[in-house]
Give the backbone structure.
Amino acid sequence: MRLDLTQRSFNRDGEPMRGKQLARLLIISLPLIWLALSPIARRAQGFQNKEAFERSVQPFLSQNCYGCHNSKLKSGNLDLEKYRTSRSITEDKETLEHIFHKLRAGEMPPKGMPRPNADQTRVVLGWIEGELER
């Protein structure tokens, strides 16, 4: 006797599973699988976000923002120097959103100041948007 496992699913007794049994099994097992894999995916994503911050966002802030938005000047009542890590800035969603809107609107850096490269700005906006959606 040959069993074709590609056609049917079987229960513990080797009998073909009926539709309701299979549906119950899937309903129970899929959330458990998701819960098991979710922390792993978040850790991997967090590492990638940290790496992207260190490679693109922090240098952008250093070159274009820290000159005015530092602990001494605090232009616009904003000290961006305290956000030296991805974790520090992502914990302050309100400031992150403020930065996003100012950059996207082209209000920062202000007129008369050197403009950052458009590609760099897009990368930073993309990173910020991704963090705001998390």
User: Anything to note?
Assistant: Residues 45 and 63 are 26 Å apart (CA to CA). Residues 19-64 form the longest helix (46 residues).
